[in-house]
């Protein structure tokens, strides 16, 4: 059986001038996980968290956003290198040009806004037929020009009454001219203030009629707009000319920023940095050789076995767990780690999960046509024709369940719920082994004795599959405990050898009684009694084996109560674990019935046959596909994982560059 990947702890002593190339090498390799340790005292001083590369990266991102350039993909980091001095200078020059363009753009838009506002205000004077300067010099008249809320215009006119004249300037009555006698000007000011009047500042050299002013402002507005358009064109040209360079700089400074972040956290002196971390043992020699070549021999390297690491021996640190598989089995890894990481050195359950998930999904979702949809989707995702974010890495799972569903569909004769399409194939296959019949496996009950027997046989097969899955979980638990030198837990307890023998013997005994019509004898009672006794009192037996005292930690009475509880839990859990797999057969039968219903409705629809078939099968593929997937995951978690996931390890998460 495959076990978790062997790991080694590596200690590196790196010269200050070599630290960034070494960190870049480790990040690109993506197989070095830093050991958990406290932040070095030397990095706690003032300026320890400074990261000029990150500041430049943020400025470059702002520039990219300003120029409306599409962001880069994280895959570009694979070919990028840490920002050099040349790239620093290039970035500084580019950012200076962008900043200059930003300032000119801001100034141009501010000028456009100012001219537009001036034009809007000047339009307020279009109802004046004489120069304002001439009106303002009248000795008997006081003039006020400004802005009010248009809704208050009529109310203001009523409020001033005969004391002043209110003249609207413009069409919306938001700008007004108020005229009164010199004697009434204070009263007018009071009323205007009540209505939120905001006076305009009239230039002392303002001359001419409104038409002249508007003409000049229109011309100025046109020229200002041209300046804004020119800057926008310049901005687009800059984006086109520097897009590739900017993306390259972003990738380089993304790497550089992450390197500095790590560097600031390392233990160091004025000359040397110390790095400790975990790597797969099979990669240690080659990686150390590359590091020695990279640093031209200016590096000290020590490699430790996990059993030589004090923090591992005293239990304060877990060795990180890495699982190594091909593309198909590796796609199921996230299902393992979403439940918990296996313990280092234990059996790797991923191949079993891949097999059981594929098998159970196929049994519950048997349809050759619908299975082909999953297979096709998996192929399109695998070749990046269809991109579904981070889901593309699960393309092998879609292909696997597609194939298993198609195989089950051929057995049940279903092709998008139709049993006629695959009939010739079923007849040809069954003809090789006897009398031809279709389908090969008839799940749809038709009331006949044969169909009832077939249905119950199908449920028996699914329970048998559950027996195999439960048994594999028990075997993995026993082996894991032996590997961890926990002999007591391996031999005794519900999930130990005693519990497993009880489970296996009872299943064989039931099959023997049902199939061969045997009866229960004394030997059965002895085997069941002994295995249950060893399971019930596993804790005291374990303490005896480990020479721990007292044997009954909480007294004899408490031990008996605990044994009874353990007995009940063992009986209930094994029974529920077995019965749970009846749902696999139930889902398989329900899927066949649902397919039959869709096919019947399609035939009843007449001209709308194709539409009903497409909609019905689409709903089944999406909704029932998700439901079946959830049920399979549930069976894996509660019936399989629960057998051996007694403690959780620590997932291997190596240092690598991300965007």
Q: Give the distance, in angstroms, between the N- and C-terminal Cα atoms.
A: 37 Å
Described by strand count, sense and barrel closure, the largest sheet is: 5 strands, antiparallel
Total strands: the figure is: 11
Level of helix content? 55-70%
| Strand composition percent | 5-15%
Shape: extended
Question: Could you list the spans in which at least 5 consecutive residues all have pLDDT below 50?
Answer: 38-48, 204-210
Class inferred from helices and paired strands: alpha+beta
Quaternary: single chain
Number of helices: 23
Radius of gyration, in Å, reads 40 Å
**What number is the mean pLDDT?**
88
What does this entry look like structurally?
The chain is α+β, with helices and mostly antiparallel strands and 659 residues long. 60% of the residues lie in helices and 8% in strands. It is built from 23 helices and eleven strands. The chain has helices spanning 19-29, 52-66, 85-122, 132-136, 153-160, 185-194, 210-263, 281-294, 310-313, 327-330, 333-339, 350-364, 368-382, 395-412, 423-431, 449-483, 487-491, 497-516, 522-536, 538-545, 556-579, 582-604, 609-644; strands at residues 7-15, 33-34, 141-147, 164-169, 175-181, 198-199, 267-268, 272-280, 299-304, 320-321, 650-651. The strands form three sheets. Strands 1, 2, 7, 8 and 9 form a five-stranded antiparallel β-sheet that branches. Strand 7 and strand 8 form a beta hairpin. Helix 16 (449-483) packs parallel to helix 23 (609-644) and helix 18 runs antiparallel to helix 19. The chain is extended, with a radius of gyration of 40 Å. The two termini are 37 Å apart. The model is unreliable at 38-48 and 204-210 (pLDDT under 50).
């Amino acid at each position: 059986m495959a076990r978790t990947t062997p790991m080694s702890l590596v200690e590196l002593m790196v010269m200050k001038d070599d630290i960034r190339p070494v960190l870049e090498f480790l990040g690109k390799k993506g197989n070095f996980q830093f050991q958990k340790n406290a932040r070095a005292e030397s990095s706690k001083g003032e300026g320890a968290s400074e990261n000029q590369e990150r500041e430049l990266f943020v400025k470059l991102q702002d520039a990219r956003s300003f120029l409306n350039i599409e962001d880069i993909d994280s895959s570009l980091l694979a070919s990028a290198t840490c920002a050099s001095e040349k790239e620093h200078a290039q970035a500084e020059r580019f950012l200076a040009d962008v900043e200059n363009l930003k300032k000119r753009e801001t100034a141009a838009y501010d000028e456009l806004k100012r001219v537009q506002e001036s034009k809007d205000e000047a339009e307020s004077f279009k109802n004046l037929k004489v120069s304002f300067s001439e009106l303002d010099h009248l000795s008997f008249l006081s003039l006020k020009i400004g802005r009010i809320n248009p809704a208050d215009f009529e109310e203001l006119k009523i409020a001033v009454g005969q004391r002043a004249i209110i003249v609207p300037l413009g069409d919306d009555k938001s700008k007004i001219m108020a005229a009164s006698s010199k004697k009434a000007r204070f009263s007018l000011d009071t009323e205007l203030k009540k209505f939120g009047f905001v006076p305009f500042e009239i230039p002392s050299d303002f001359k001419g009629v409104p038409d002249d002013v508007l003409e000049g402002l229109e011309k100025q507005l046109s020229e200002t707009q041209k300046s804004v358009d020119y800057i926008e064109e310049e901005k687009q040209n800059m984006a086109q000319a520097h897009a590739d360079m900017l993306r390259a700089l972003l990738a380089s400074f993304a790497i550089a920023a992450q390197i500095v972040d790590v560097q600031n956290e390392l233990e160091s002196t004025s000359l040397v940095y110390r790095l400790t971390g975990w790597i797969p043992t099979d990669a240690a020699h080659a990686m150390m050789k590359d590091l020695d070549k990279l640093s031209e021999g200016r590096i000290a390297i020590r490699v430790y076995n996990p059993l030589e690491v004090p923090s591992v021996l005293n239990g304060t640190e877990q060795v990180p767990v890495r699982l190594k598989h091909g593309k198909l089995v590796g796609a199921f890894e996230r299902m393992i780690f979403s439940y918990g990481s296996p313990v280092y050195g234990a059996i790797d359950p991923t191949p079993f999960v891949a097999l059981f998930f594929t098998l159970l999904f196929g049994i519950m979702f048997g349809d050759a046509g619908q299975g082909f949809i999953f297979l096709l989707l998996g192929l399109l995702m695998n070749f990046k024709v269809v991109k579904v974010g981070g889901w593309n890495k699960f393309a092998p799972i879609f292909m696997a369940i597609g194939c298993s569903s198609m195989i089950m569909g051929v057995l049940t004769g279903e092709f998008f719920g139709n049993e006629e399409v695959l009939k010739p194939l079923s007849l040809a296959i069954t003809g090789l082994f006897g009398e031809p019949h279709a389908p090969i496996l008839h799940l749809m009950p038709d009331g006949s004795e044969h169909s009832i027997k077939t249905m119950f046989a199908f449920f028996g097969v699914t329970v048998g599959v559950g027996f195999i899955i439960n048994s594999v979980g028990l075997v993995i638990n026993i082996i894991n405990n032996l590997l961890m030198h926990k002999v007591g837990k391996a031999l005794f307890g519900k999930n130990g050898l005693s519990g497993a023998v009880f489970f296996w013997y009872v299943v064989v005994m039931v099959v023997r009684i049902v199939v061969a019509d045997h009866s229960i004898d004394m030997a059965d009672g002895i085997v069941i009694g002994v295995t249950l006794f060893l399971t019930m009192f596993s804790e005291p037996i374990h303490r005896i084996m480990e020479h721990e005292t007292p044997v009954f930690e909480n007294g004899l009475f408490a031990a008996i109560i605990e044994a009874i509880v353990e007995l009940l839990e063992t009986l209930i859990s094994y029974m529920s674990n077995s019965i749970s797999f009846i749902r696999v057969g139930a889902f398989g039968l329900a899927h066949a019935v649902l397919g039959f219903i869709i096919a019947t409705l399609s035939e009843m629809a007449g001209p709308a046959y194709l539409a009903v078939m497409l909609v019905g099968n689409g709903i089944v593929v999406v909704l029932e596909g998700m439901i079946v997937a959830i049920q399979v995951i549930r069976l894996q978690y509660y019936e399989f994982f629960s057998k051996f996931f007694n403690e959780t390890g620590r997932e291997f998460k190596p240092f690598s560059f991300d965007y």
